[in-house]
Amino acid sequence: MSKSYDICMRNDGILVFTITRPDKRNAVNFEVMAGLNEAIQLANETKVKAFVITGEGEEAFCSGGDLGKFHQLKTEEQAYQMLIKMGELLYQLAMLSKPTVALINGIAIGGGCEIAAACDIRIARKGIKAGFVQGKLAITTGWGGGTILLERVQHSAAMKMLLEAKIYSFQQLIELGFVQYIYEGDRWEGLRNNLDFIFSLEDTVLTAYKMMFVRKMRLLDLKERIESEIRQCALLWEKDAHHKQVDKFLNKKMTDQ
Q: In this structure, are strands 129-131 and 50-55 parallel, antiparallel, or unpaired?
């Protein structure tokens, strides 16, 4: 049985973490979490200039948590144990001393947008769609992505994306400030063409600039705010409204197949 992720160190100093579950639209399971933790630790090594997250195939970057697995979690405490595990990873990702990039090759939904938000830079393939749709499942963002989003885009744009809980076109994502760069064709060419400035700078310069952001986030109590977000999501997770919406979604998905 193949792993749910791949970690690759490129010759140009870019460490790439790929979710390899295209049949599940690259949804996150516990194995993906373990792999992301491994990759983040490797990204701290001095030879790494930048850390990139992407998804296998051309359909999905990440569709969030694997509802088929996580819907088995019914209580607040059960949900919290899963949410805090991923929340800690996104905190580490946001605070990593190297530039981080979400290479959005396909649709990004829910938790997939939280992962993208935790990265410093978002590069998207022309035509992709993305959205924080958690509200439609009667929960909030639960991995810390909502809290981090408030630091990535303007307050009004963040509230729009969270409250509307809908999927946006790539053009709308640019206008909202969520996506900074667009590529067409090969993703690796798109990465290099858009991030040529990273390859031209010394890694010491990249780290120095990234640490400016890290110091700011420490002052703004990012970790504590993420913890509060996770607690709120876990509370809502236990409610009947959430489980009904997930059942409805899963039943619709089975009917569509």
A: unpaired
The full DSSP string for 26-90 is T-B-HHHHHHHHHHHHHHTSTT--EEEEEESSSSEEE-SB-HHHHTT--SHHHHHHHHHHHHHHH
DSSP annotation of 204 reads: H
Contacts of 8 (CB under 8 A, 6+ apart): 15, 16, 18
Q: Angle at the Cα of 239 (from 233 to 243), degrees rounded to 5?
A: 95
pLDDT tens, residue order, the chain (257 aa): 689 999 999 988 999 999 999 999 999 999 999 999 999 999 998 789 999 999 999 999 999 999 888 989 999 999 999 999 999 999 999 999 999 999 999 999 999 999 999 999 999 999 999 999 999 999 999 999 999 999 999 999 999 999 999 999 999 999 999 999 999 999 999 999 998 888 889 989 999 999 999 999 999 999 999 999 999 999 999 999 999 999 888 887 655 54
Q: Tell me how crowded residue 255 is: count the other CB atoms within 10 A of its CB.
A: 7
Which pTM does this prediction carry?
0.96
